[in-house]
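Quick illustration, no need to memorize.
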Amino acid sequence: MLKMACEGIKYHNDNQLKSIYSYEDIFEGYLNNIKEIIDEDGLYPRFNFLEKALLAIVSHSNYMYGQLDYVEAYKSVYDAVCNRCDDLFSKRLLDSLIENNILSYYDDGDVQNIYFSYEKLGDYFFAKYLVENVDLVENILSDVREVEENKGSLNILGALLPDKKGMELFELVDRDYISKIERIISEVFVNSLLWRNHFTLNKKTEFFIDNYLFKFTELIRYFFKSLIKMSFEDNHSLNGKYLYDKLISMELKEREYLWSIGIYNDDSLLHILDWTWENVDMLNIQQKQNFLIVFAWSLSSSNMKIRDTSTKVISILLISAPSLIKKLFELFKNVDDDYILERMYASIYGAITYLENDKSWSDIIYELYEKIYCGKETYPNIQIRKYCYLIIDYYCNIHEYNMKKEFPKIFNTKSVWYDYAPSEDDIENLEKSISERYGEKSSAEFSCTTIISSMATEESKYRMYGDFGRYVFSSIIYPWKNQLNEQELSNIITSEILKEKYDFDNFSDFDMHKIKRSIGKNTEIERIGKKYQWIGIHRMLARLVDNYPPYTVEYSYSDDGMEKIDFENEELYLETLKEPEIIGETKRYNDFSTIDLYASINTVDPTYLNKRKIKNKYSLDISLFKHTFSEVNIETNIINEHLNRTRIIDYDGKQYLNVYTFANQRLQKGVDIKLSWSMSGCLVKEEDVETFYKNYRHINNNGIPYSEFRNCYFKDFSKSAIFKRLKSQNNEDNMCYHVSHIPIIEEYIWDKYRDESIIEESINIPLLSEELVKYFDLNFQNGCWTNGDSLVAFINQYENVTSVFIDFKLISDFTNMKGYKLLLGEYFELRKNREYKEVWQLLNIDSDSINFYISDERYGVLFNRYFEE
C-alpha cells in the first residue's frame, strides 16, 4: 500500500502533501504509471484499458476469493478491450499485467489462476464494480459470512459509495439485520473517513454515529483520531467544531475514557503538533481555529509530551491569530476538566506576553476576572489562579494600572473548606469495599491501592509512604505543617478521588497496564489516578491559602534553663538539665505566601516557544585554548593569558567586554587537560567596593555575581510578580553578607523534567539584568540586545563556551555616570593529568584597564582531593 501511495502521489506531481488522499488518488495515480509503461508508444492515451481489464476480472461470475482461472481471465480481458485496441495488444494485455506485477500467476499443474499481486488493489477494483451494482452490495450485506469475506472491499466501498452515489454503506443494510453486522459496518464507516473526497453529515449519519458507532469503544476512539486529521480541511463537516460539540456534551468520566485515554499514545497527534509548531503561518484562519480546538482538548491527555507540546502550540496559534484568544476562552471557560483549564490559561498567558497590548486579548481581562475571582467562591485551583493572576498582572504592567485597586478580589480570595477529613481507617474501609466489589487482584483493586499508597505520607500509620506523598505532596504543603496534619490532608484528596472522581470500571485497566504500554516511549505517561491526584492538590492548595494563611511561629524563652558564662570575653549560653520555659510566641504571616506558592508549582513555560535553546545570531570562535597545550602548567599563571583573549574583543569596529562566561573544555593532545570556567559581572557602588572584596565569596556559588531563576517565565522574565519576589529574596540573601550589588546577568533556567516538549536536557540562557535593559532601553531577539539599529550586547555560543559581550564604552560610561565600579567574579578549575588548580578572583574593570584581585588559590592531586576536603 505504501509503495502504491508513494507512486500515486508522485504521478500527481504534488509539491505539498495533502491532509487527505482518496483511494482514487492513490490507486489511479499508481495505475497510470503502469499504463504508460504498457502503452509505451502512446497508442491509447484516452482509453483506460487498464481499468477495463481489471474490472472485467473482478466482475467475472467465477471470480472468488480474489482469484480467477487464467483462461477465463484471458478471455475477459480480451473481450473488454479488443473493440478499442488492436488484436495483438489485446491478446498480450493479461501477460503484460502479470509482467508489471499488477497480477500474479499461480500454476500447480492442476490449477492455473491469476490473482492481484496487491490484495488492496483487488479490493479496490471489486469495490469499484460494486459501486455500479448496488443490488450485489445488498446481497453481500445480508449474509454475515459474505460480509466477513469481503471486508477489504467493503472498507473501500465505504469511501467510494458516498463519493459516487451520495449514500452511506449502512443505508443499504436491512434495518432488522443491521444488529448482526453493526460492528463491521461501524468499522467500515470509520475506516472510510480519511479516504473520501467529500463527506456529508446529515441526520442519517448522525443517527448512525450516535446509536451504532458509540457502542464500540475502540472504534469511537479511532473515530476521534480521524477527526484530528480531518481538522486540516477548512470546511469539512467533521472538523474541530464537530469534535468540540461531541466532547463538550459528554460527562467528564465518559470523555476521559473515550478521548483522553484514546490519545495517550497517538503519535499522529504529536506529528501534527510538531508540524504546526514549525508551519503555523501556512494555515488559514479556519484551520487554526480547528487545530486550536483539537489541541485544547488534547490538554486533558495523561501523556505529558502531548500536554506540554499542546500548551506551547496553542500559544503559537494564538500569537499568529490573536482574535482566537477570545474564541478559545469562550469555548472552554466552563469545561469540567481542570487539566484543560490550567493549561488553557497558561497558553493564553504565553501568547499575550508576545502580543503586548493587542486589543484582542485585552477584551477578555475583565470577563476572566469575573469568572475566576468574582463568583460565590474564588475558583479553587491554585494553577488556574496563578495563570489568571499573571495574565492580569501583565495587563496592569502594560497599562500602568494599580492591580489592587483595579482588581481587588485577587487579593481577597475565598473558598469553602472541606466538610470533613477522613481518617486512615476510613480510607482502609474504602479500599476494602472496592476490593470486595471488583475482586482481589483485579485492576480496580490495583488502581485503588496505587492511589492510596502513592498519597501516603511519612505520617501514615498503616503504609510506607509513597514517593509522590513524601517528595511531592509533603513538600508542597510544608508551609501548613504547623497548622494541619499532612496525612489528614492527603486523606481528603484520596477519599475524593476514590468516591467521586475515579471511574473504576473504565480507568482501572489503563492505569494497571499503562506502564507496559509506554515502554519504549520517550515520554512519561501518567495514570488517570495520578492526574486526579494533581488536580486534588491544586484544588487543596487554593483552599489552604484562603482558609489557613501560612505563618511561622517565633518563640521567646525564659533564661531559667540557661547558664551564662564568660569565655574569652564572649558570652555563651550553656544548656542545663532544666527545660527553658516558653514565655511568649508570635505568629509571623508570610505576606508573599501565594506568590511563593506560584513559584514552586511550575510545570511548563508557555512563553518559551522553542524546542531547543534559542539560536543566537553570533557564533564567534573564542576558544580558550586557541594556540598550544604544552605550555599550560598547573603552577603558572598561563591560564590568565588564555582567558585574556576572551575578556575584550573587537567586533564590527567596537570593543565588547565579556561579562559572563560558562565553559567546560576537555582537551586531549598527549596531555589530559580540562578547564572549567565560570564568570559573571556586577555593579557595585564605589564606596562599597572594599566591603564587597571581603565578602563576595558568599555570593551565590563560588562568588559568581549572577542570579539563577528556575521558576520564572522566559518572555515575562523581569516583569512578573514571581520574578520580582524571587529577586527580592536573592537580594535579601546577599544583604545578609552586606554585599550590595547589581548583577549584570540574570540567568533563565528551565529543566526538561518540567517540560516534555523541550528536546534538550535543560534550557539555560544568560540575560542582561532588568536594570541594564531599562537603562539602555534594549530589545532582545535571537540572542542580541539592540537599541534601535545599534547592537549593545549579544550572547555568543561557540562549541561548549557560552559568553555574553556588551559594548565596552557604553557600560563604562554608565558606571562612571552612576558612580559604580564594574567587577567580574571568576572561578576556574584547571586539571592536568592528576593535578588540579582552583582559583577564585575578582577583576576590577576600568575604562582603560583590568585589575586582578586574587582571593584564593588551591593546588592538589585529583585522586586525593575529595578525601582531603
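Residues 626-630, 864-869 have pLDDT under 50 and may be disordered.
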